[in-house]
Amino acid sequence: xxxxxxxxxxxxxxxxxxxxxxxxxxxxxxxxxxxxxxxxxxxxxxxxxxxxxxxxxxxxxxxxxxxxxxxxxxxxxxxxxxxxxxxxxxxxxxxxxxxxxxxxxxxxxxxxxxxxxxxxxxxxxxxxxxxxxxxxxxxxxxxxxxxxxxxxxxxxxxxxxxxxxxxxxxxxxxxxxxxxxxxxxxxxxxxxxxxxxxxxxxxxxxxxxxxxxxxxxxx
Length: 219
Prior knowledge:
6-stranded parallel β-sheet; single chain; 6 strands
């Protein structure tokens, strides 16, 4: 049973096994919410994240989801509803494991992959979740976006461009679905010590000076 902070059901976090997604899940659990989290390929990490949530006294189910496949998005959402009875909140913290080329050096394949997984993936999630939220009397969308949409950082186009498209979709959800008590917001974060940033650092793509510049650009 959820606390007074949340209605019955669960928050579904796409990308809930990653650094940002797991942090969002832990915060929701700390405020008394049950969770459903998704992973793309690393079930062990997702199970570990779920165990940490359940240690806080909340329920947490785990579901596989590939955002580039509509049927996978649908299956994960349906499984979350089956496990919890309702999805009252959708948090999208999933994203492609991108490289950082300049725009002029970005390949067609890189562009197509990130648009299909991130932008089209969010579209698939929204189309699935909105009818459910309407039937349930409302709900919330939260998209983990990027401060690069506000202050452009060089070589970040594969992250920022699809997020800009998603932010447009968020605005349409808020505009069109408010009448159904559905809220939608984006949270633009800066550089964090998790996820892709740590991989790029290991690969030598980030230096101490570069980190300071990125933080300044996204502040």
